[in-house]
Amino acid sequence: MTVTDPAAVEKTEQGNARAEKMLKQLGEMGLEFDAATGSVVPGEGIDISSLPSSVALNGAADGQGRFYSAAEFMKVIKECDDLLHGPAKDEKKPFQEKYKAREELEKVRVNIETKRCLAMIESNTPKKTLLDAQKMVARVEYRLGTTALAVEEGSGKALEHLVVGAMPQFFGQDVADLVEKIEKEDEDVEPNLPEISTSLPLNEAVDLLNTCGAANANREKFKLSVQLLKASERLYDTASVEEKEKMEDVHTQTLFFLAQTWGHLGDASNSSLYCAKTTYRQLRMNVVLSEDGKEVNAKESSLDVEDWTRNVMTLANYYASIGMHQQAEHCLQAAGHLAALFLKQADSEDTDFDIIGLRENVAQIDRKRAETYLGILNLCAETHMYKLAGVETGDDEVAEQPKELIVDYGKELKGLGKGSEFMKMNYKEIISSVSYEFARKIFLAANAALERALKFYVFDGFVTDHIDLCLVRANAYGRLSLLESDEKRKQAMQLKRVQSIEPIMEAGGINEEAFCGLLKTLVHEIGAAYMDMHELKSERIEGKIKKDPTYRIKAVEAKKMNDFAWKAMRYFTHFLKLYFNKSNMPKGFDIKDKETWGELCVEAGKVSVEVDEVLGYLGAHFKIARLLSKIVQDWEGEDLGKGRMVKALEGSFERFEYVGELAEGLGGEGRKDMKKKLEEGFAQQVELSKEMARLLPVKISRVIQFNQQFVGAA
């Protein structure tokens, strides 16, 4: 005999009745319940996103589920948000709290969906209650989507919650359908999202769009990502002051994501604009300054000052590269000023940031300032040389500088200037103002920045950085000398150029294998400086001969000219030496002995020259050949220096012949890339080498027979 519980029987009968009523209701809606899969199959034109899940359908059949009052719902949401955004209690289980929050959110979603399913069957629930329930589910789905990303489950699962579950209620089904369609397209469709609004919390709506934008960027759908993030930006812009206060952090995130995504699309202009906006907001929101702006409260400031200064330096590099000199300098001023405030605070009390790292950032900022000033100095020097040659310069080579700063950090950092007067000038104004005095102002600013940077980047510990800074200084002296008209002052500047870098070589201690590329730059620059000093001396004597054809070069003048030439050749030869294998280096070779390096047998060993280095390598040979052709009689020794002069001319002849042969060999069969490089950048030197090889025997003969001196350029 089977005993049946009357209460259980009644509950089963009620469930069956509800199930039959539910199936009838679904049928009237054009839907079918697939018992095999436990899911609802939609008819044509049915909005599937509004359908309850199979879990909810089963729960509804059992009479389960519940609606939440606004207070109850917000209590659950707050508890879950605290778990989602709070710190992990166990470092070995970083997602434990997030999993717990997700479990609670899933429970809330099933409860609401189940009750909504029952309401569809019973048809006795107020419409407002159903709408409120759908909005609650959307807010839950939004959190489930962000959680999926936070626990690294991938963008696909996150977008399923965000686009399918949350977006229809936040922004409308049309928007959700469009986004989902674009996501599923194989081709990179250009999206055009409509203007959107929402009745749900604006900070959540903005973050939802941010999260969708970031998730699509991870899927390399950058155009859709930009459109979603721009929609997020528009929502913030249209918000009230009170609403904006609640979403300052999420809006900063919007700008940050836009900077990254525009970068992925290759739009440097928009990427830099949003990076500037991001760094400005980070400064405004996360740094606590005294009323006069002269002190910073490092403990209350949440800004990662090292990361911030690096980002602003990157911005400065971009602005300098497109000719926006004022904005570039202003960025560096802001980075340096803020870093100095934090370091000042560090000197007075304990702080938890990396002081050494920040000090290096300060030195790097000064380095960037020097390089930025050098860029202007280069422009001045080039413009001056064009004018001397009578060549017109274009006025569209560099972008025009806007009248106002794109981002003015001085609004937050009180007392911060807007840049040097010469940095405020645009391209046209700079090239029309070029003069020695104008260039000198830029040089002094660069030199002051270099002095500060070198105090940190000492040679012992920062070999590469120290040499790079010394090279910047040498370049600055070289550019400034081009605008000087007085020969003695030009010579003095060239000497300063040499003194900026030659002591590094004389001190030794630079490993040729570890710093080969840097050494090539260093020795070539010293050689070029001595060659320029030789040219200046040569031009001065040429001027004397032009005024008085009977003028005879003095022994002291000849000695000085030859000394500059030999020194230049010494460093150009050292440059070439760096391309040799040690095993192939000629025996007895000594860079300090001009009798060996002046006649370096270039065929003695194989050299390794890459395509991008071939012009510099051949150029060094060509320069040595020219310098050898300019050695003059100095009236010393038994033959008064005539023998050395003839020997140098013979060496020049051999070197010019070799330059032509070497260029032909390097650009030979199977080396199309090398051949093209030589045709574009060295064809003129090859022709001149052939011409000099033809003329030099005559010159040597005239020296031997008539003791004739030659000073002019070869």
From TrEMBL:
Main location group: cytoplasm
Q: Which family does it belong to?
A: Belongs to the KIF-binding protein family.
Manganese as UniProt keyword: no
Query: Subcellular localization, per the record?
Result: Cytoplasm, Cytoskeleton
Signal sequence, renumbered to the chain:
none
Output a single Gene Ontology CC term carried by this record. Answer: cytoskeleton
What's the protein called, per UniProt?
A: KIF-binding protein
Source superkingdom: Eukaryota
What are the alphabetically sorted keywords of the record? Answer: Cytoplasm, Cytoskeleton
**InterPro entries in alphabetical order:** KBP
> Mind telling me which Pfam families this protein's record contains?
KBP_C
